[in-house]
Design a protein that fits this description.
- Helices cover 48% and strands 13% of the residues.
- It starts with a strand and ends in a 13-residue tail after the last helix.
- The relative contact order is 0.09.
- It has 437 residues and is an alpha/beta fold.
Length: 437
């Protein structure tokens, strides 16, 4: 089987050992094919880098960002998406379920809600120890944390470790964990949003005892507290400090827990184990259908445009063009409209016209207002557009359709709602929202 892997190189060597032809592709320079800019079409990748031979399957590996390759919604090639950072991007990953054909999700607590609305299977597949690490008998450190300590990114983490270091010695640093963990008696873990992160598996692989905050997303389903690892209450500095003192004073007990944890990792949570599961699904994967595919694809490119606008204005505009193309395809197919889609669609159309000084987004809003008359949000956006362009008669006519005698109320309401939407961004409605547009 010919497999194209996007964004990361996870599982590539494992697949090759099974006899499959694999090409990794993305923005990273470590990949087989390095894309120097985003928004390259899949067909261009196939023609320019795969010798014109389309892959049999495409595996999309999460890199905590919107997808950057165009043409994935339109392709007939089956797509599998492995979501890692759904705790950061729940709305985006929920949308991508309508673009791909199978989803693995590393954070278990999000699976039920997303699976409830997904047209394709959403299956929990935890992270793993990303590399083999041999334990060391030479222990230089008592308790260590290796990871990002940036107050702007995670103020809670910085506050926690600053307070903890006043109670017990904890070495906090960045670097190659595989050179540090094996030489530490205890590795302490703190999460961003209660996620079951890579550090859990990497610390246990190293042969050090893992001390991690008690969290969800499958931690206790995989490991037993006091047997494979030790937990502390999230944010509780005193609890963490007491556990560190206890296990530093009982090194034999700490080593026993560490050994049991490593054994569990080697048996169940290696790269090879995860690759085997992913490959099982890839082998039988078929292209599916969704009545929200192109609207969902629009959301991806709108999110990408927002991410790019501080990096490259032209690329941000190009992403908006891709969002508009996806919207056109969705409207032509009269795809299902949802509450969140309505917000994202209006946001994309308004941003497009603002960015290009055009009326292309406004024309799509007019089409949407005809296809989905129950969504007054589209009419409000049109009212605001008419007022801003000086077309008062058109604004009045549309205000009457909304169903009130007080046109000034509609005018002020349209300006308030759309301005707030544009200021706050496209992800205004949370995943579990029951509010009505």
């Amino acid at each position: 089987m010919n497999i194209l892997i996007l964004n990361q190189d996870w599982f590539a060597e494992d697949f090759r050992r099974e006899g499959h032809e694999v090409t990794t592709c993305g923005l990273g320079t470590h990949l087989d094919v390095t894309l120097h800019v985003p928004l390259i079409h899949l067909d261009s990748i196939i023609e320019g880098h795969l010798g014109g031979k389309a892959p049999d399957r495409i595996l999309i590996l999460d890199n905590s960002a919107p997808l950057i390759v165009e043409g994935l919604a339109e392709t007939s090639i089956p797509l599998l998406f492995y979501s890692v950072d759904v705790h950061h991007h729940a709305e985006l990953h929920d949308s991508l379920c309508h673009v791909v054909d199978h989803v693995f999700m590393a954070q278990r607590d999000y699976c039920t809600e997303i699976n409830r609305k997904s047209p394709v299977p959403v299956e929990w597949l935890p992270l793993w120890a990303s590399r083999y690490v041999e334990p060391s008998s030479h222990l230089e450190h008592g308790c260590v944390f290796v990871g990002t300590l940036n107050r702007e990114l995670n103020e809670e983490r910085v506050d926690f470790f600053e307070a903890l270091q006043k109670e017990v010695p904890v070495l906090c640093m960045t670097g190659k964990y595989w050179e540090i963990f094996p030489h530490s008696r205890i590795v302490i873990n703190q999460t961003v949003k209660g996620d079951l992160n890579f550090r859990v598996f990497e610390a246990m692989m190293s042969g050090s005892m893992l001390l991690t905050e008690m969290s969800g997303n499958g931690l206790t389903a995989l490991f037993e507290d006091g047997k494979h690892l030790v937990t502390y209450e999230k944010g509780n500095v005193q609890d963490a400090a007491q556990k560190i003192r206890m296990y530093l004073e009982q090194p034999e007990l700490a080593r026993s827990i560490a050994a049991a944890g490593r054994k569990e990792i080697l048996e169940k949570h290696t790269t090879a184990k995860r690759a085997q599961k992913v490959l099982e699904v890839l082998l039988t994967l078929q292209r599916s259908t969704s009545n929200q595919r192109y609207f969902s694809w629009m959301k991806n490119f709108t999110a990408l445009s927002n991410r790019l606008k501080k990096i490259d204005t032209e690329l941000s505009r190009k992403a908006l063009l891709a969002a508009m193309r996806a919207s056109e395809m969705a409207l032509d197919r009269s795809e299902q409209m949802t509450e969140q889609t309505a917000f994202s669609f209006v946001y994309a159309c308004c941003k497009y016209d603002m960015s290009f000084g055009s009326e292309g987004g406004n024309k799509l809003l007019q089409q949407a207002a005809d296809v989905y008359p129950e969504y007054n949000l589209f009419k409000l956006a049109l009212v605001r557009g008419y007022l801003n362009s000086g077309n008062i008669s058109a604004a009045r006519a549309l205000a009457k359709q909304i169903g009130t005698e007080d046109e000034s109320f509609i005018f002020s309401g349209a300006e308030k709602v759309i301005t707030e939407l544009l200021n706050e961004g496209s992800d205004l409605v949370p995943l579990n929202s029951s509010s009505q547009v």
